[in-house]
Structure formats: structure tokens, C-alpha cells
């Protein structure tokens, strides 16, 4: 359910009684007669320059930090490195750092899709399902799959899914035929459940509902509410 935020927005606008005051600062004076579109373009340009300088600064810090480490190693081990060896060492460190960042970005990207697959010990496979509502992450759910060494068929070993989701049926129908469909079906069930639950909680908190009841799946709801009736 959405809230009416018009009142708050109006209050903010009323507090800004004179926009021209913003340009009394000499640093902003040159922008006084600019159009909104020009200001947006200038802002994007300044943000880009800021990001570029920030990147240069971060790389400079890494370079100095790496040189400190190398210098310490040279003192401790009585090893001297020529310029070429120093560059090789720095490049390896930077590549390793980039690989770690790339791996983290890949994990974030997969998480945004709502489903992640990961290895588990004993040659098992894990599936993680994200749930969302109101632009926020909610609790994740997991399925651990086991593979039969004789026929290479997958089966559900353990899971954290709610009991009312028809996992056995989905496993028999899709798991060894279409893994993508299997994961999507389960993800849809989980997301629908979390959405119903959060909407139910919102109903209680914001709509003045009392004596609300629901089953575990939040698919069957009972509640009471008070209506104002004009008896005239």
C-alpha cells in the first residue's frame, strides 16, 4: 500500500521561499541563468570528473601501499627488486584485486536475478533463492541437491522452503528435465508467499484492521474492520 506523501513534499517546497538565494554564493553565480537541462549536463560532467579523480586517488593509494609492502619484504629478506620486477609484482597484485572485485560484482548480479547456484562439499549443489518486497531484500531460502553417482540424477537432499510449497511435485516434474524451469517455479512460489505475507502485515499496520488471522501460506485471510456509516 502506498502512502500519500503530498503533504511532506508541499512543506519542503514552501520552505524554499526564494530560489535566487541559492546563487548568492560566488561559486554558484555563473549558473544562475542556466537552464535545467544545462545544469543537469554540468552536474553529470562534474560527477564524471569526480569519479575519475577518485579512481586515480585510489590507484595511487594502492601503489604506495604496495611499494611499502615490497620495501618491507626487501628489508626483512635482504632482497632487492629492479624496476621490472617491481612492475611485475604490482601488476599481479592489481590483477588479483580486480579478479576479487569482478567476482563480487558477479555475485551481486546473480543475486539481483533472485537465484544463485553454488558448490557444496561432497559434490552437492546449492540453490539460493532471494525474496523481495517494497524494494527490500527479505529472507533467502535454500535447496541442497545431491547427485546419484550411478545414474547422475539429481534429487533434493535438504531445503529450507516452507512446507506448503509443492517441492516434491516440482522435483519430479522439472528437476532432471529442466533445471531452469525448476528454479523459476520455486522462485515464483517463494516470491508470491513473501508478497502475500508482507501485504498482510501492511494491512494490519496501516488499514486499521483488527483480529486478523491467516494460514501459514497467507493464502486464506480473516479479519475485522470498522466502517464509519452515516445514519442520516
Would you mind describing this structure in some detail?
- It contains five helices and eight strands; from the N terminus they run H-H-H-E-E-E-E-E-E-H-H-E-E.
- It has 232 residues and is α+β, with helices and mostly antiparallel strands.
- It has a four-stranded antiparallel beta sheet with strand order 1-2-5-6. A two-stranded antiparallel ribbon has the order 3-4. A two-stranded antiparallel sheet has the order 7-8.
- It starts with 5 loop residues before the first helix and ends in an 8-residue tail after the last strand.
- Mean pLDDT is 71; it is low at 1-23 and 72-81.
- This is Cenp-O kinetochore centromere component-domain-containing protein.
- Pfam families: CENP-O.
Question: Summarize this, please?
Answer:
Keywords: Centromere, Chromosome, Coiled coil, Nucleus. The chain is an alpha+beta fold.
Give me the count of strands: 8
CATH superfamily of the domain at 115-214: Chromosome segregation protein Spc25
Estimated radius of gyration: 29 Å
Classify the secondary structure makeup into a structural class: alpha+beta
Organism: Glomus cerebriforme
Family: Belongs to the CENP-O/MCM21 family.
Keywords: Centromere, Chromosome, Coiled coil, Nucleus
GO cellular component, one term: nucleus
Amino acid at each position: 500500500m502506498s502512502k500519500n506523501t503530498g503533504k511532506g513534499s508541499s512543506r519542503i517546497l514552501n520552505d524554499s521561499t526564494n530560489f535566487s538565494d541559492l546563487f548568492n554564493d560566488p561559486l554558484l553565480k555563473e549558473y544562475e541563468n542556466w537552464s535545467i537541462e544545462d545544469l543537469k549536463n554540468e552536474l553529470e560532467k562534474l560527477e564524471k570528473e569526480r569519479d575519475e579523480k577518485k579512481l586515480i586517488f585510489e590507484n595511487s593509494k594502492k601503489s604506495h601501499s604496495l611499494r611499502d609492502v615490497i620495501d618491507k619484504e626487501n628489508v626483512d629478506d635482504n632482497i632487492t627488486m629492479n624496476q621490472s620486477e617491481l612492475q611485475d609484482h604490482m601488476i599481479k597484485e592489481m590483477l588479483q584485486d580486480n579478479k576479487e572485485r569482478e567476482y563480487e560484482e558477479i555475485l551481486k548480479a546473480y543475486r539481483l536475478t533472485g537465484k544463485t547456484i553454488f558448490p557444496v562439499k561432497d559434490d552437492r549443489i546449492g540453490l539460493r533463492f532471494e525474496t523481495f518486497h517494497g524494494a527490500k531484500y527479505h529472507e533467502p531460502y535454500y535447496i541442497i541437491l545431491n547427485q546419484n553417482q550411478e545414474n547422475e540424477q539429481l534429487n533434493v537432499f535438504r531445503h529450507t522452503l516452507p512446507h506448503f510449497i509443492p517441492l516434491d511435485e516440482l522435483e519430479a516434474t522439472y528437476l532432471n528435465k529442466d533445471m531452469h524451469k525448476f528454479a523459476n517455479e520455486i522462485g515464483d512460489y517463494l516470491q508470491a508467499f513473501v508478497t502475500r505475507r508482507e501485504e498482510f502485515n501492511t494491512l494490519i499496520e496501516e488499514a486499521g484492521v483488527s483480529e486478523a488471522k491467516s494460514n501459514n501460506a497467507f493464502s486464506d485471510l480473516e479479519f475485522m474492520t470498522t466502517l464509519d456509516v452515516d445514519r442520516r
